[in-house]
Specification:
By secondary structure, this protein is an all-alpha fold. Helix content is 27%, strand content 2%.
Amino acid sequence: MDPSKKPLGKIFPFFAGICLLLLPLLVYSALSSPAEERHGTLPAQNMTFDHNGAALFASYAQAAEAYLNAASPARTLPEYYARRQYGGAPPFIAHKAMDEPSEAVTCLACHEKGGWTAELKRHTPLTPHPEKSACRQCHVPQTEAPLFVENLWLSVSPPKLGRAYLPGSPPPIVHSLQMRENCIACHVGPAAVEGIRVTHAARGNCRQCHVPDLFQGLYERTLAK
């Protein structure tokens, strides 16, 4: 036998014996010690969320049940766009307009919470911006008078519907949100346009699933440095 291997043969059994003695102590210590709580820290970022959920819920809660459950002759998309110069433009006033000094009272009396109008024989559409009281600043009465200046104006094509990226996924919002932050005003209730009336009116936070279609390219995640 090689004399150089004798010390190694004596040290190994000694080391194995120490491990066997310490093993129960290590197991007991691991099982009896409380688990260490680890909390991750997110990098500081300037994150802003524009889902407008609180305002949408408030608008839905303020809508009268009589309005939401009422029946009315359906408004169609061609009729909807016929009252606008282009998609997104303010519609003209489809009835006899009151005097301008009293417009804030008379317009919001019907268009803030909705109601049946005997003149048009249907429910009045809700305004998505009842906080704007100067209605005649954007909405003008309908007139049959000829244009005072001929022009080459060509209307803008309305946005196409059904543009979901995956079958069954929620479609994106195909219009800008300026002055149209309140989705409920146009998509819920008897005065809603038939082609864009939602089938799940009980879900008040629309922006939780539907987002503006603003990005034309592929989305790329930006990692924090």
